[in-house]
């Protein structure tokens, strides 16, 4: 008998992997939202969602593809010498920022399931070393549901608009708890739901790849983190991301908005969410 649930999960992973491979190779699509480059300024967008000018200064060209919905490195309060793991690291944007914060004695590791993104990140790492003199970044191919990372080996886990794309979110939280050292911290920026999305939105794979249809309720995110064994869980709602989508006329925003009930907007359903927790 065929495992329909397993097939569906793998279909989601395949679609996400193919979509982000296209972003990595062509650069035609940008942001978690699917906007066109000509309509979008990644640097300006990064500042809107919480990145400072100093953080963006030494980034390799092309590392910032606008795939963020917040700044998890700010929430993480990274310290020199720490080992940081970024789930769904893409072109290395947050890995490079984290690497500067933890310094020469620290390490920033990125995990991504898309080989094309991994190639882009490793190429960017060469430019990062030339810009900063740091050699403390590493990129690994793998799924965030099955991290290629040893137990109890990481001080801090960050992730930026990625967990919502996983068809097995509880497993992702379980893996985070596994690889964290005792006393380790989680700092996640993600999209979450304030209320369930209408069915037409949920059925749109474009919305899924845009990090919208894969989001779960805020309370469900907290429940999964707690079930994984994490403690001191804190949730901060940040509506700036959704508001900025409407301001720069994002195509995905327009598509999703058209599927919403009359008089409702995407910000009534979806928010950017910062989650911090400890092991």
Secondary structure layout plus pairing:
Layout lengths: L3 H23 L2 E2 L4 E2 L5 H7 L4 H5 L14 H5 L6 E5 L5 H10 L4 E6 L2 H18 L4 E5 L12 E7 L8 H11 E14 L5 H4 L2 H5 L8 H10 L3 E8 L1 H8 L3 H9 L10 E9 L1
Parallel strand pairs: 3-4, 3-6, 4-5, 6-7
Antiparallel strand pairs: 1-2, 7-9, 8-9
Helix pairs in contact: 1-6
How would you describe the overall organization of this protein?
This protein has 279 residues and is of the alpha/beta class. The chain has one domain (4-278): Rossmann fold. It has twelve helices and nine strands. It has helices spanning 4-26, 42-48, 53-57, 72-76, 93-102, 115-132, 169-179, 199-202, 205-209, 218-227, 240-247, 251-259; strands at 29-30, 35-36, 83-87, 107-112, 137-141, 154-160, 180-193, 231-238, 270-278. Strands 5-4-3-6-7-9-8 form a seven-stranded mixed beta sheet, sandwiched between helices. The chain has a two-stranded antiparallel ribbon with strand order 1-2. Strand 1 and strand 2 (35-36) form a beta hairpin. Helix 1 packs across helix 6. The longest helix has 23 residues, at 4-26. It is globular and about 55 Å long. The N and C termini lie far apart (39 Å). The model is unreliable at 28-37 (pLDDT under 50).
Number of spatially distinct domains: 1
**Count of helical stretches:** 12
CATH class: Alpha Beta
Largest sheet: 7 strands, mixed
Looking at the chains present, what oligomeric state does this protein adopt?
single chain
Task: Tell me the total number of β-strands.
Answer: 9
Strand composition percent: 15-25%
Structural class: alpha/beta
N-to-C terminal Cα separation, in Å? 39 Å
The helix/strand series, from N terminus to C terminus, equals HEEHHHEHEHEEHEHHHEHHE
Dominant shape: globular
Main-sheet strand order equals 5-4-3-6-7-9-8
What does the average pLDDT come to?
83
């Amino acid at each position: 008998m065929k495992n329909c649930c397993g097939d569906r999960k793998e279909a989601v992973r395949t679609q996400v992997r193919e979509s982000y491979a296209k972003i990595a190779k062509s650069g035609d699509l940008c942001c978690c939202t699917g906007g066109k480059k000509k309509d979008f300024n990644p640097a300006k967008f990064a500042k809107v969602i919480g990145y400072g000018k100093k953080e963006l200064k030494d980034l390799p060209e092309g590392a910032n593809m606008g795939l963020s919905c917040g700044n998890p490195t700010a929430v993480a309060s990274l310290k020199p010498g720490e080992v940081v793991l970024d789930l769904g690291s893409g072109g290395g944007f947050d890995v490079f920022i984290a690497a500067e914060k933890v310094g020469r004695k620290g390490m920033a590791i990125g995990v991504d399931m898309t080989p094309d993104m991994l190639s882009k990140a490793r190429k960017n790492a060469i430019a990062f070393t030339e810009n900063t003199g740091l050699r403390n970044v590493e990129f690994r191919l793998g799924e965030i549901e099955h991290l290629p990372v040893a137990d109890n080996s990481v001080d801090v886990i960050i992730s930026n608009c990625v967990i919502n794309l996983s068809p097995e979110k509880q497993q992702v939280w379980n893996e985070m708890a596994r690889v964290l050292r005792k006393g380790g911290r989680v700092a996640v920026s993600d999209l979450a739901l304030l209320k369930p999305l209408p069915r037409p939105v949920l059925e749109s794979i474009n919305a899924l790849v845009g990090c919208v249809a894969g989001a779960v309720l805020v309370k469900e995110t907290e429940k999964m983190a707690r079930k994984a064994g994490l403690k001191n869980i804190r949730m901060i709602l940040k509506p700036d991301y959704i508001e900025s989508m409407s301001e720069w006329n994002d195509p995905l925003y327009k598509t999703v908005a058209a599927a919403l009930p009359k008089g409702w907007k995407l910000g009534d359903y979806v928010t950017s969410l910062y989650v911090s927790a400890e092991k």
